[in-house]
């Protein structure tokens, strides 16, 4: 048996509590000592939502749950409570250290934005030179923040499959999306393949209003999308123009799920997939297909874009909590990140010429890749449960 304690801070009414387990069958029962209700049965692994009712007028109440399972060691407890706050001198020292790392990088980002802006009017006269120059400027910025993550803050990334990537190859890159730190993982692959300067990321249109970052994203030719397909098609045509007409090198990077993974989104996705007869991979959301199909159909017409890279990202905190990466602030603020987190990135390379031709078949191909990606993630979780390193090969048929 494993006990769960859930804090409910509500004046009245209900609050939803999401718990997760891996056992084949698990009975969740609220203790009779604290009231009635809140019982349920999990089957075949997965997640369940409990809605304990807070007493009327209560400002704070505590529900105690007990999970009973024949394989209690397979159970995943909820996320740990935050560690106790550090003392003021330690907090001040970390803040100063973080400022010394980040402020110079932000200054370089501002200078880069100014340089990129100066290149815009020249791009109609010397488009190739401006693209090469803006790519070099972008690489210096991405490389700077990557060094903060991997060198200054000691994030050791386990990389799998990168040896199959030809240096300098242009490709469409698809990936699951967990947290901000996903950018570091894909940049690690791009750096090893010699394509960091050529990364062009699908990003939310709202990011263009972010100080420092937004203008630079647009000036570097990043596709800023809104999820309104008619508008996004025009934006993609803008980005693809130089790639198709002038054969500019590119890594076109897309988080195919279009949003970060959360437990609530997973529950909603499971319901949608069940209602629509779709397959869903473990630890994932269902991939959006329109952008992927449009990218493949457009870029397969140019001979220098030759592959699709399917990237799988995984994290673990304290060698116990699967898919719990650090936040952006933690990646900047905390030293010795590898003492607390595992970082893993795997890539599979697929020749663009081998992909299906029709839109419908491409949609099914992407769905199949996401099911396989889920199997890969589940194997990583099992290794974590068994206390094994992610440096060992993951036995699977890709």
TrEMBL record:
<feature type="domain" description="Phospholipid/glycerol acyltransferase">
    <location>
        <begin position="171"/>
        <end position="293"/>
    </location>
</feature>
<protein>
    <recommendedName>
        <fullName>Phospholipid/glycerol acyltransferase domain-containing protein</fullName>
    </recommendedName>
</protein>
<dbReference type="GO" id="GO:0012505">
    <property type="term" value="C:endomembrane system"/>
</dbReference>
<keyword id="KW-0012">Acyltransferase</keyword>
<dbReference type="GO" id="GO:0003841">
    <property type="term" value="F:1-acylglycerol-3-phosphate O-acyltransferase activity"/>
</dbReference>
<comment type="similarity">
    <text>Belongs to the 1-acyl-sn-glycerol-3-phosphate acyltransferase family.</text>
</comment>
<keyword id="KW-0808">Transferase</keyword>
<dbReference type="Pfam" id="PF16076">
    <property type="entry name" value="Acyltransf_C"/>
</dbReference>
<dbReference type="Pfam" id="PF01553">
    <property type="entry name" value="Acyltransferase"/>
</dbReference>
<dbReference type="InterPro" id="IPR002123">
    <property type="entry name" value="Plipid/glycerol_acylTrfase"/>
</dbReference>
<dbReference type="InterPro" id="IPR032098">
    <property type="entry name" value="Acyltransf_C"/>
</dbReference>
């Amino acid at each position: 048996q494993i006990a769960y304690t859930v804090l409910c801070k509500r004046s009245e009414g209900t609050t939803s509590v999401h718990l997760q387990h891996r056992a084949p069958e698990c009975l969740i029962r609220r203790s009779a000592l604290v009231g009635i209700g809140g019982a349920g049965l999990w089957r075949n692994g997965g997640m369940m939502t409990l809605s304990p009712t807070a007493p009327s007028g209560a400002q704070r109440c505590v529900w105690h749950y007990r999970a009973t399972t024949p394989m209690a060691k397979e159970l995943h407890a909820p996320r740990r409570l935050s560690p106790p706050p550090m003392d003021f001198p330690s907090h001040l020292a970390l803040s100063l250290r973080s400022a010394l790392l980040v402020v110079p990088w932000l200054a370089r980002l501002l200078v880069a934005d100014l340089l990129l802006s100066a290149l815009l009017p020249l791009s109609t006269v010397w488009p190739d030179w401006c693209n090469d120059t803006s790519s070099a400027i972008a690489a210096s910025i991405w490389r700077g923040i990557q060094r903060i993550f991997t060198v200054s803050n000691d994030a050791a990334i386990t990389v799998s499959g990168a040896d199959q990537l030809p240096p300098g190859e242009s490709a469409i890159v698809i990936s699951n999306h967990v947290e901000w730190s996903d950018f570091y993982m894909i940049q690690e692959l791009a750096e090893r393949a010699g394509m960091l300067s050529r990364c062009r990321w699908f990003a939310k249109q709202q990011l263009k209003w972010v100080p420092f970052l937004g203008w630079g994203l647009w000036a570097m030719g990043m596709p800023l999308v809104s999820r309104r397909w008619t508008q996004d098609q025009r934006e993609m045509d803008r980005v693809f123009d130089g790639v198709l007409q002038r054969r500019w090198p590119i890594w076109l990077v897309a988080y195919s799920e279009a949003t970060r993974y959360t437990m609530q989104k997973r529950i909603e996705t499971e319901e949608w997939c069940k209602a629509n007869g779709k397959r869903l991979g473990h630890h994932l959301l269902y991939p959006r297909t329109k952008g992927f199909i449009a990218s493949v159909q457009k870029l397969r017409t140019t001979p220098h874009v030759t592959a699709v890279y399917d990237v799988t990202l995984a994290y673990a905190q304290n060698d116990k909590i699967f898919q719990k990466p650090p936040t952006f602030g933690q990646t900047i603020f905390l030293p010795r990140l590898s003492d607390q987190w595992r970082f893993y990135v795997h890539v599979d390379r697929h020749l663009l010429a081998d992909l299906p031709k029709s839109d419908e078949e491409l949609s099914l191909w992407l769905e199949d890749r996401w099911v396989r990606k889920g199997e890969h993630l589940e194997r990583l979780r099992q290794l974590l449960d068994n206390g094994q390193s992610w440096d060992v090969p993951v036995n699977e048929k890709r």
